[in-house]
Amino acid sequence: MAGHEVSVRLTVDGTARQVDLDPRVTVLDALRDELGVMSVKKGCDHGQCGACTVIVDGRRILSCLALAASYDGADVTTAAGLGTTDHLNPMQQAFADRDALQCGYCTPGQVCSAVAMLEEARAGMPSHVSPDVSDTTVDLTDAEVRERMSGNLCRCGAYVNIVRAIQDVAGQDVARAGGGAA
Amino acid sequence: MTTLEPRMLEPEAPAAADAAPTGHDRMRVDAPAKVTGTAPYAYEQPVEEPLHLFPIVATIALGRIAEIDDADARALPGVRLVLTHANAPRIRVRTDAALTILQSSEVHHRGEIIGAVVADSPRVAREAAALVRVTYDEQPAELGFSIDDPRATVPRRVNAFKHGSYERGDADAGLTRGTLVEADYSLPMEFHSPIEPHAVTAIWHDVSALRPRSTRLTMYDTNQGTGGHGALLAPVLGLLPTQIEVISPYVGGSFGTKGWPWPHLVLVAMAAKRLTGRPVKYAMTRQQMFRTVGHRPASKQRIRLSVEADGRLGAIDHQSWAPTSRLRSYVDQTVSATRMMYDVADLRTIHHAVVQDAAPGSFMRAPGEFSGMFALETALDEAAHAVGVDPVDLRVRNEPAQDPETGKPWSTRNLVACLREGADQFGWAERQPVGARRDGEWLVGLGVASATYPNMYFVPNRAGVRFTGGRYVVELQASDIGTGAWTVLPQIAAEALGVGVDLVDADIGHTGLPWAIPAGGSVGTFAWGDAVVAAARKFRRTHGEHPDEGDHVTATGRMPRGSRGYSRHAFGAHFAQARVSTVTGEVRVDRMLGAFAAGRIINPRTARSQLIGGMTMGLSAALHEEAHLDERFGHVVNGDLAGYHVAAHADVGDLEAITLEEHDPWFGATGAKGIGELGIVGAPAAIGNAIFNASGVRLRDLPFTPDRLFDAWGQPTASGTRATSP
Ligand code: FES
Ligand code: FES
């Protein structure tokens, strides 16, 4: 495949990056293998676990299912872009406060997913458990949070704490708070 | 029985700096790094100009490699090395058959590693591996096993040094007293499935060809214990343990799969040896996680027990059948908990193993206890129903005064308190007769099961304490696999040193530190803790209250003298509320409560997380987890997370853990017991027993999927109604 590289520009956690890629490379592998951005994790590479969740142009995506070549020009936020260890995003702070993690490997994906999920709920997007899909105000019950977060597996079993953490910050504008670029 | 005060583990405000360092909430010290994704896991350790490896694996279950054609792979630009048994380094010390890879043309199981490609990029390595054409001379493989399998043998010892068989009294005579309860149970093959797959980067530094002992191997790995991995890999790689540096500061979950070195580590080290000086990286795919990194072997069990009208057990005969790999034997200690759990005079317990041409199994969270207690605690529910005794009362009535297996006194045993307190807090008194509670299409019921996990602390550990920069550092080869060791070990050290916890750091997760056993068998906190306490006390004795920069001691922690005179276990009780849809057969778990007596709780916040994590994995096993091994071809049919389901957010409702005050000096200086495995033991039985209380359907095979409910009810008709409905 050598010689068939494509040039891709990405803004990653607020920094403009450019890289020449094998067109088979996913956003996930571009971040981890080509750009050294390790704040996004690989758990399955097949859209089955959610560990690779990042926020692209405001929406959460599974970066293992996104070819980098088709994301030229995209604005990508990973967990490291939402906050820093000294200045956590409120969602990250809530995860720490509620011990919503154990091994921590699913955690960056959970955090990105949760932040974007709250935006989706705020925008009135229904879920499988919403009683009325035409209702544009979402009552973010625990069942709603669980349903909307079910793409993010946590094998350590921190689910009940993750839901509490998300409920702690639900209603706050977490996507724009904190130290990051989102 | 002492009266015990339950304590809620709901995280409280972190302790003030002047509070006693242990017994209080301490926020996970690695939480900021983990929530920002900046804690470096194995694959993420920065190395210069890495090469990338992709393995070649056998596509037959048994036979020989006839020919390997790697011409196309070698021709691909960017390929640096194709490694097969034809050109691999020789392994002279064969300590572990599963690690002895690429030494012959023999294939022992499907998915076995038979080669590798190393290339400039992961893509090229993977593409090239697919271009390697392997032809085989295939032989028929033995796969599949059954209860009363004629090929079965009884191992002398099974995992954790437990006896293969054990009897007391006269089980056959005892079974004739009272009501006989008899049934078969099964658990499927399960996979640990940590969200971080195995990953390793190896760098072989050949310092001087003239001085072979100057060779160094660096491995950035993800494992439960760096020293153990180094020691086990060294002879296979022709090195001394001191020549291997293993670095594993953060581990993205394990549950047993990263507790023992697997063949991919040998493979990557071999490749690194051929490509001296260049880092060789390998990130296992999720599909490969279902091949060569262990699993919980399936088990089939038969229990026969007799029960008197008052709920007293007469006798128990508990036997298990399980597959074991011809390549390397591994048998779970499935029936061992039955030996000590209840006051039963007449008992027979036997493990049977059936050799298979399959990949080796291994320990997975609470090996043995998990499988055996599913069957036993379900059978006890059947016994309670058979004689009309409340299932909590039945367990209390069979409480043994001392360990019925060894005759030793209990160090502490507060199972009854867990059952009583759990029942109170859960609202057990609201439990209705079988099938009596209906909520629309749903039948709702409550279930209970006991939990236990033994003390697995067998070998002494060492730890160091160093004073530097005005702070103390506690040093040992411990590993934090999500348990909280980074957070808890400084708490233990701070208490023993008499300083605030904020003055103590941990240095763990790499070799070159004092020896400590891997994080397994739920011993980490209390066994490492013993060494930490010993080192802290020695530090104060040696260097006093006002140490100088660089002062340092190392000390050994040993099991408390006299502890072998006691039977040492942790206990707990699970309560579950399940609902069963009469329309779809779906099972939902509305709520679960675990009440545990697990010694002194060092950090309630991380302890609760481990306990609810175990319960969640138990719920996952109850509802979803089931790997299907194709007995014709030897592969796992559903080998990824789309096919092998684990619990997701939406599966887990209201789930809580409480612990009872307990301090067990016979576990060690901290008074703590192990909690990593306790939370999963018995959880599926509590759910199954709740399903029975809800629906009258007794499910004895995990997982409790809708088809099993329908099988019990009769097949659904074309119109969607059932021939027989509850
Ligand atoms: S790595 Fe993308 S969903 Fe698992
Ligand atoms: S914290 Fe380990 S997988 Fe979620």
Radius of gyration of chain A, taken over Cα atoms and rounded to an integer in Å: 16 Å
**Strand neighbour order, sheet with most strands of chain B:** 4-6-2-13-10-11-12
What's the main sheet of chain B like? 7 strands, mixed
Helix content of chain A: 25-40%
Please, what is the oligomeric state?
Answer: heterodimer
CATH topology of the largest domain in chain A: DNA polymerase, domain 1
Shape, per Cα inertia axes of chain B: globular
CATH architecture of the domain at 408-457 and 560-726 in chain B: 2-Layer Sandwich
Please tell me what the overall shape of chain A is: globular
In total, the number of domains of chain A comes to: 2
Gap between N and C termini of chain B, in Å?
A: 42 Å
InterPro entries (chain A): 2Fe-2S-bd, 2Fe-2S-bd_dom_sf, 2Fe-2S_ferredoxin-like_sf, 2Fe-2S_ferredoxin-type, 2Fe2S_fd_BS, Aldehyde_Oxdr_Iron-Sulfur, Beta-grasp_dom_sf
Pfam family, one (chain A): Fer2_2
Pathway (chain A): Alkaloid degradation; nicotine degradation
Keywords (chain A): 2Fe-2S, Iron, Iron-sulfur, Metal-binding, Oxidoreductase
Structural overview:
The complex is a heterodimer of chains A (182) and B (726). By secondary structure, chain A is α+β, with helices and mostly antiparallel strands. In chain A, 30% of the residues lie in helices and 14% in strands. Chain A folds into two domains: 6-82, Beta-grasp domain (Ubiquitin-like (UB roll)), CATH 3.10.20.30; 90-181, Orthogonal Bundle (DNA polymerase, domain 1). Chain A has a five-stranded mixed beta sheet with strand order 2-1-5-3-4, sandwiched between helices. In chain A, helix 3 packs across helix 6 (159-169). The N and C termini of chain A lie far apart (35 Å). The relative contact order of chain A is 0.17. Chain B is an alpha+beta fold. In chain B, the strands form five sheets. In chain B, strands 4-6-2-13-10-11-12 form a seven-stranded mixed beta sheet, sandwiched between helices. In chain B, strands 1-25-24-23-18-17 form a six-stranded mixed beta sheet, sandwiched between helices. Chain B has a five-stranded mixed beta sheet with strand order 8-16-15-14-9. The two termini of chain B are 42 Å apart. Mean pLDDT of chain B is 94; it is low at 1-18 and 716-726. Chain B has helices at residues 31-35, 71-75, 122-131, 171-174, 226-237, 263-274, 337-341, 369-387, 391-397, 415-426, 485-497, 524-543, 604-623, 683-695, 706-713; strands at residues 6-8, 51-57, 63-69, 79-84, 106-107, 113-119, 133-138, 165-168, 179-187, 199-205, 216-220, 244-247, 280-283, 299-307, 313-325, 346-356, 438-439, 442-454, 461-468, 471-475, 504-507, 552-557, 569-581, 587-597, 654-660. Classes of the chains: A alpha+beta (182), B alpha+beta (726). At the A-B interface, helix 1, helix 2, helix 3, helix 4 and helix 5 of A face helix 1, helix 3, helix 13 and strand 25 of B. The structure holds FE2/S2 (inorganic) cluster (2 copies).
